[in-house]
Structures are given as C-alpha cells and as structure tokens.
Amino acid sequence: MASRNPFTPTFGTVPAYLAGRQSVIDNMRQAFADRYGNPNLSTILIGARGTGKTALMSCIRDEAQDAGWLTASSTALPGMLDDIYEQALMSARHLIDQPSSRQLTALSLGPISAGWEHNEGSLQQGNWRTRMSLLLDQLAQHNTGLLITVDEVRADLDELIRLAAVYQHFVTERRQVALVMAGLPYHVHRLVSDKSVSFLRRSAQHQLGRIPSADVGVALRKTFQSGGKRIEEEAVDICIKSIKGFAFMLQLAGYRTWIEAGENATVTAMHALRGVHDAKYDMEEYILASTYRELSPGDLRFVEAMATDPVESRLSTVASRMGVSNGYASKYKTRLLAGGVIGEQARGVVAFDIPGFREYVLARKSER
Ligand SMILES: Nc1ncnc2c1ncn2[C@@H]1O[C@H](COP(=O)(O)OP(=O)(O)OP(=O)(O)O)[C@@H](O)[C@H]1O
Ligand SMILES: [Mg+2]
C-alpha cells in the first residue's frame, strides 16, 4: 500500500523538511541557549505570501521549547495582548499553582499570589505589563523564559506597538524573554519605522527570499525519502525549475509529483513533468486567481500597467501608462504593497512579489 503523501501544500503547515532556513534556526538555537543578551532574541521574519514565515516561526517555537522556554503565540489582531497573556499562562500551567475552580485568567501565581490573596481582582486588573511581569517573575524562579511570537504584523495595531514597547522594558530589566515576529515587507517596514518602538530596528531581520536551488533539491529528496520513495535526479531538476525557490510551490510540485508516482518506489522525470503541470494549475487556482479576484478596478489598472515591464516598474511610468498623477497611482501602490501583491525594490520601483502573477495578469488581460 502506498504511504501517505509527505508534502504539505497548506498554508501555515510545517513541512516535513524545511528547505534553506538552517542559518536562521541555528541563530535562534544559540539565542535560546544564551538566554539573555543575544540580539537574535528579537527577530523579525520578512517575506511575501507563501515564502514560509509561519512555518519557520513554528520551527523557532519548537527550538525554544526544546531549550526549555515557554511560548505564547498570537496573530496581530485586536485582543492580541490578552491572548498572549492567556497563552503564556496556559503554557506555564505545569509550573504555577492552578486552583481548579477558577477561571484561567484568575490563575494563582504561586507565592506571589499570597500577597494578592484578598485582592485577587488586582492581579487581573493590573495592566498588561504588570500581569506579564508577575508571570515572568514566576518563570524566572524556574529558570524559564518566555518566547512571544506574533504573526502577520501590522503597524496600525496599537496593541502591537504596546507589546513592543513593554517588551523593551522586559529586556532592560534583564528578564528572560524573546520576541519573534513575522509579516509582509510593507507592514514590517511600517512597524519598524514607528518612532515609539525604534529599538525594533536593531532586531535581527531575516528576509525570506527565494530558497536556493540546492536546498530545494535536498528538501525534495529528503521528503520523498521520508515517504519511502526515491526521486531520480532528472525529476529533481524538473521540479526545481518550476519551483523557482518559492516555498509553497515546493510543496505543490512535490505533492503532485508524489501522486503521479502512485505505487512506484522510484519517482521519474515523467512523474515530475506531469506533477509540475498539475502544480502550476493549483498555484494558479489557489494563489493567482484568488489574488486577482481580490483586486479593485483601480488595483487592476495598476498591475496591468506594471505587467508590461519584464521585471520591475517605475511608479512614474506606471502612473503615465494609467494616465494619472504619481500621487494617485501611489494610492494603489500602497494598497497592493499592503496586500503583499507587489514589493518595493527601491524608492519608486515596484515588482510583483507573487511568482507567476505578472504572466497571469497579462494572460487575463489578453482574454478580455
Ligand atoms: N522552508 C520551507 N521549505 C519547504 N516548504 C516550506 C518552507 N517554508 C514553508 N513551506 C511550505 O510552504 C507553504 C507556505 O508556508 P507558510 O504558510 O509558512 O507561508 P507564509 O509566508 O506564512 O505565507 P502568508 O504570508 O500567506 O501567511 C506551506 O505549505 C509550508 O508547508
Ligand atoms: Mg503565514
């Protein structure tokens, strides 16, 4: 009987083999071992959609847990701070006293709770920094630190700015804390530009660009192997060419090629050619078509004006093709940057951030 398909073409899923992120993981492992003072303890992962930010963040959490840290993970949405506090309490449950009859948010914090005993409301009502400080005090007694992760960062969320500001206090107080955030380039750029959290500019920032071909090859071979199949080198090359270093496509191409191989123990070039063909179709269906559908008429005019250029476009050229002012075109540029459709290569120079989107836009235009 064929074994389970080991590829994971689903957003947010940790793949069987993480291609090309070893140096980030090594840095984080060292940082968790150091516990204090290592600059990688504040890290930001930056990348376009599907480049593997969420997956890498999960692996970083695993590293932290292996090193004995507790973790609290959240997404940048309203209510995030409460969420982080509750997640932290949950993961600290085995270390702190926990009266079963109480609500989670009213957990007694071991010895500290004695002082608050007849005034337990204060523990809940203390502001976020106070509550977190009490919790971190407790963890420190067990020589344990807390890693906070925040996915999909956006600078317009006050709670995120507040988290970053409080985190800076924790670092100054030499508490064992770490903060790993992930987001689209546009949002991260806006966040680190916020004056109130300028220390974030000094955090370790990793751009998750295209994964080198050699690393893609290793991940393909190992993933097939983990499912009990061997892939021929010619087939690996065919996959690498279609993947173009894009994490999500690695999973799609591998997944489809695996299906084509069926019961065969060896994956051949023919399987790969068919698999890659189907994967391109999936990519179109899941990513390109859905992104295209979300564009407003103005966004669409902007991307069509861009698609005429082979690689990157000047904003001024796009504006003149659209027949509008630079300022007007900028409005759409900002929207598309925020959505992760395009990226800004240099001031006033933009390019598509989703592989294959330019070709897709041109094809749809010619159909009309
Ligand atoms: N380094 C990697 N090697 C192989 N596959 C990966 C790698 N990173 C992520 N993947 C796979 O790629 C897909 C996308 O990953 P993930 O959801 O982490 O992307 P993302 O950057 O968080 O995307 P988004 O911006 O849409 O949230 C998933 O199927 C995941 O399993
Ligand atoms: Mg993600």
In summary, what is this structure?
The chain is an alpha/beta fold and 368 residues long. It has helices at 22-34, 53-66, 80-91, 110-116, 120-125, 128-141, 158-172, 185-193, 213-226, 233-243, 247-261, 269-293, 297-307, 315-322, 326-338, 357-367; strands at residues 42-46, 70-75, 146-151, 177-183, 204-207, 230-231, 266-267, 312-314, 342-346, 349-352. It folds into three domains: 22-207, P-loop containing nucleotide triphosphate hydrolases (Rossmann fold, 3-Layer(aba) Sandwich), CATH 3.40.50.300; 213-291, Helicase, Ruva Protein, domain 3 (Orthogonal Bundle), CATH 1.10.8; 295-367, Arc Repressor Mutant, subunit A (Orthogonal Bundle).
Report on the architecture of this protein.
The chain folds into three domains: 22-207, Rossmann fold, CATH 3.40.50; 213-291, Orthogonal Bundle (Helicase, Ruva Protein, domain 3), CATH 1.10.8; 295-367, Winged helix-like DNA-binding domain superfamily/Winged helix DNA-binding domain (Arc Repressor Mutant, subunit A). The longest helix is centred in the C-terminal third of the chain and has 25 residues, at 269-293. It has helices at residues 22-34, 53-66, 80-91, 110-116, 120-125, 128-141, 158-172, 185-193, 213-226, 233-243, 247-261, 269-293, 297-307, 315-322, 326-338, 357-367; strands spanning 42-46, 70-75, 146-151, 177-183, 204-207, 230-231, 266-267, 312-314, 342-346, 349-352. Helix content is 54%, strand content 12%. The strands form three sheets. The protein has a five-stranded parallel β-sheet, sandwiched between helices. Helix 10 packs parallel to helix 12 (269-293). It is built from 16 helices and ten strands. Residues 99-123 have low confidence and may be disordered. With 368 residues, it is of the alpha/beta class. Bound molecules: adenosine-5'-triphosphate and magnesium ion (MG). Magnesium ion binds at residues 12, 53-54, 151.
